Amino acid sequence: MRYHKTLDFIQEIGTIMYVGGILSHIVIGIIFKDADVEAIHNVYVYKEQSAYILILPGLALKVISDILLYISFKMKPNWLKIKFIAVAFLTINAFVFLVPMMPELVALAKESIPTGSISESFLEKEHKEQFIGQLNILPLIVELVLGSFKPNLSLKKSR
């Protein structure tokens, strides 16, 4: 049981890093949405670096602790199976789509600086990144709720 408490603690740290990093991306995007091109470039440099420093390590902590938690149960609880699927979705989405976009967005923003206006290719890539990021909302909420409350999702009727 102490082992699970340690894994829960690691989950908390991972959640703070992961969700905190995502929220900082949202906030800085809102604050600087009408900024000049150089500021937008700096925002995306920040977003890229915070993804490497906060979001990905936080997600890694969550994935590692979820794997260890999953292995530790002889009978896998349904909440953990669903949580595992949600984290797998978040991980694939991050590594296949979102992380590769960050350097591209930084480069496109930098290329826009000499013209003084953000390029159409940057805006298209930014909208795609925002859409893909929004796909994470439901799996993230599911993962957080299941990890926090660990509800009994058994199909057996309780007496």
Written description of the protein model:
This protein is an all-alpha fold and 159 residues long. It is built from five helices and no strands. Helix 2 runs antiparallel to helix 3. The chain is elongated, with a radius of gyration of 19 Å.
Tally of contiguous helical segments: 5
Q: How much beta, percentage-wise?
A: under 5%
Query: Topology as H/E string?
Result: HHHHH
Helix content: over 70%
Overall pLDDT, averaged?
Answer: 94
How would you sum up the major sheet?
none
Distance between the termini: 26 Å
- The total tally of domains equals 1
Low-pLDDT residue spans? none
Rg, rounded, reads 19 Å
Overall number of strands: 0
Structural class: mainly alpha
Categorize the overall geometry: elongated
Please provide a brief summary of the model.
Helices cover 81% and strands 0% of the residues. The protein is built from five helices and no strands.
Main traits of this protein?
0% strand; 159 residues; mainly alpha
Write the layout of secondary structure elements.
Layout: H1 2-31, H2 37-72, H3 78-112, H4 120-134, H5 137-149
Helix pairs in contact: 1-2, 2-3, 3-4, 3-5
